[in-house]
Amino acid sequence: MPRPTKGARLGGGPSHERLLLAGLARELFQYGRITTTEAKARRLRPVAEKLITKAKKGDLHNRRLVRQTITDVSVLHTLFTEIAPRYENRPGGYTRITKIGPRRGDNAPMAVIELVEALTVAQNAVGEAEAATKRAVKEADEAKATEAPAADAAETEAAEAPAEESKDA
């Protein structure tokens, strides 16, 4: 006899959970961000990421596999034509969960799950340029720190020399 997965079923049986997660995934792909409970967001993340990975492959077999979960054809089309190409260079981590505090009515912990923006080539180049600038500033500060003791010693010698000349006069 098959053994069910461990953990809560989000208030229902396995078929209800599967349909609930399919609906949440559809809304996530349709709007890009949804607000739900933390438990649902955590259960949704692996489902959504697997669907995006299948959409990245883009062949007919994977389209049919995703169609079993996402039954809305317009959302399916959006997933394959807009969302999947955005993440073609990203190996995973397509979603982000942000906790937003308790819900007012029943104090349930709420979270926002959203699709992260993929790094474009321009953004990646800007990030590398900023990192190079930070490295250059750090190296310049280190160089000044090593030069500062030598400069301080030279300044103190120069300050002592006129004082000695005034004593002789």
TrEMBL record:
<comment type="subunit">
    <text>Part of the 50S ribosomal subunit. Contacts protein L32.</text>
</comment>
<feature type="compositionally biased region" description="Basic and acidic residues">
    <location>
        <begin position="131"/>
        <end position="145"/>
    </location>
</feature>
<dbReference type="InterPro" id="IPR047859">
    <property type="entry name" value="Ribosomal_bL17_CS"/>
</dbReference>
<dbReference type="GO" id="GO:0006412">
    <property type="term" value="P:translation"/>
</dbReference>
<protein>
    <recommendedName>
        <fullName>Large ribosomal subunit protein bL17</fullName>
    </recommendedName>
</protein>
<dbReference type="GO" id="GO:0003735">
    <property type="term" value="F:structural constituent of ribosome"/>
</dbReference>
<feature type="region of interest" description="Disordered">
    <location>
        <begin position="129"/>
        <end position="169"/>
    </location>
</feature>
<comment type="similarity">
    <text>Belongs to the bacterial ribosomal protein bL17 family.</text>
</comment>
<keyword id="KW-0689">Ribosomal protein</keyword>
<keyword id="KW-0687">Ribonucleoprotein</keyword>
<dbReference type="InterPro" id="IPR000456">
    <property type="entry name" value="Ribosomal_bL17"/>
</dbReference>
<dbReference type="InterPro" id="IPR036373">
    <property type="entry name" value="Ribosomal_bL17_sf"/>
</dbReference>
<dbReference type="Pfam" id="PF01196">
    <property type="entry name" value="Ribosomal_L17"/>
</dbReference>
<dbReference type="GO" id="GO:0022625">
    <property type="term" value="C:cytosolic large ribosomal subunit"/>
</dbReference>
